[in-house]
């Protein structure tokens, strides 16, 4: 099997070719933006974070794998619960992994490890984890079948999987309204079916089929919903979202850019509350057991 490499500390980690585009984004500008705004991203999905940890029910002696760990909040919290066990966070982004290590060290959490690597091909020790978790980080694999087979092989028989993934775009105001604003009246093409991305695990029937085929059983997909937080006020949220979605304006003229920013300010202003700018969202809480 051919591998490519991504930018990062030497030696560069191997990446499956099907994940090369994801690696360019997450180990490039996108990952850098997430690292620079780590606290804000964690706050935006705080309600789902607590729901995931509740479902994971991490025991003191558990060995936990965190897939697509980002800047490591889920990994650190898993390690804090697995006081006699351990947690490994894995992600493609060098900057996010670097920050994750720094934050864990500052918190004095000693039973946590972070690796910049591709979970689709990383050589996990067989049956070395009691539990695998992911908070919106498992939807970006180029070959999901290979990825979940590799993850399943790392989980002991009877071990567990707990993930949060997004429901289809139409179920979440945050996605439809923010991207529609920056579309600036254009009809943007939808990603091809099956393409990696935030909604690649949005179909419960597909998720059940995928996990069953790759070594998991007792698959349960639960509908969960929560508001997402994007900023303290409209001005704060506009600046954040503009940095996050600014790539959508590439190639546009000044008038189109102005129209997009006006539309963004409009939708964000409508969602400003006493608790900040909040949008409704829906996700799936996916749980399964290693067969």
What does this 3D model show about the protein?
This protein is α/β, with parallel strands linked by helices. The protein has a single domain, classed as Vaccinia Virus protein VP39 (Rossmann fold). 40% of the residues lie in helices and 25% in strands. The chain has 11 helices and 10 strands. It has helices spanning 20-26, 29-36, 38-44, 46-56, 73-81, 94-106, 144-154, 173-183, 204-213, 234-245, 254-270; strands at residues 4-5, 14-15, 63-67, 86-91, 112-116, 129-135, 155-166, 216-231, 272-273, 276-290. Strands 3, 4, 5, 6, 7, 8, 9 and 10 form an 8-stranded mixed β-sheet that branches. A two-stranded antiparallel sheet has the order 1-2. Helix 6 links the parallel strand 4 (86-91) and strand 5 (112-116). The longest helix has 17 residues, at 254-270. The radius of gyration is 19 Å and the shape is globular. Mean pLDDT is 93; it is low at 1-11.
């Amino acid at each position: 099997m051919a591998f490519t490499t991504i930018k990062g500390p030497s030696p560069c980690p191997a990446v499956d070719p099907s994940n090369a585009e994801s690696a360019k984004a997450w180990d490039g500008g996108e990952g850098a933006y997430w690292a620079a705004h780590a606290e804000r991203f964690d706050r935006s999905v705080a309600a789902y974070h607590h729901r995931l940890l509740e479902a994971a029910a991490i025991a003191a002696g558990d060995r936990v794998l965190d897939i697509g760990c980002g800047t490591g909040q889920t990994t650190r919290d898993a390690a804090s619960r697995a006081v006699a066990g351990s947690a490994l966070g894995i992600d493609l982004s060098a900057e996010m992994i670097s920050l994750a290590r720094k934050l864990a060290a500052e918190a004095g959490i000693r039973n946590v490890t972070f690796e910049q690597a591709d979970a689709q091909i990383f050589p996990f020790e067989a049956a070395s984890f009691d539990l695998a978790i992911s908070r919106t980080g498992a939807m970006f694999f180029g070959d999901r079948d290979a990825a979940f087979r590799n993850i399943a092989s790392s989980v002991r028989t009877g071990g567990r999987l707990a993930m949060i993934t997004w429901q289809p775009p139409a179920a979440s105001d945050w996605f439809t309204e923010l991207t529609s604003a920056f579309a600036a009246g254009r009809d943007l093409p939808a990603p091809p079916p099956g393409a990696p991305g935030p909604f690649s695990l949005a179909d419960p029937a597909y998720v059940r089929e995928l996990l069953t085929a790759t070594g998991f059983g007792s698959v349960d997909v639960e509908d969960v919903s929560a508001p997402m937080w994007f900023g303290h006020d409209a001005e704060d949220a506009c600046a954040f979202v503009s940095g996050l979605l600014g790539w959508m304006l590439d190639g546009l003229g000044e008038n189109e850019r102005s129209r997009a920013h006006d539309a963004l300010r409009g939708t964000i202003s409508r969602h400003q509350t006493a608790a900040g700018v909040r949008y409704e969202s829906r996700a799936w809480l996916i749980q399964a057991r290693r067969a």
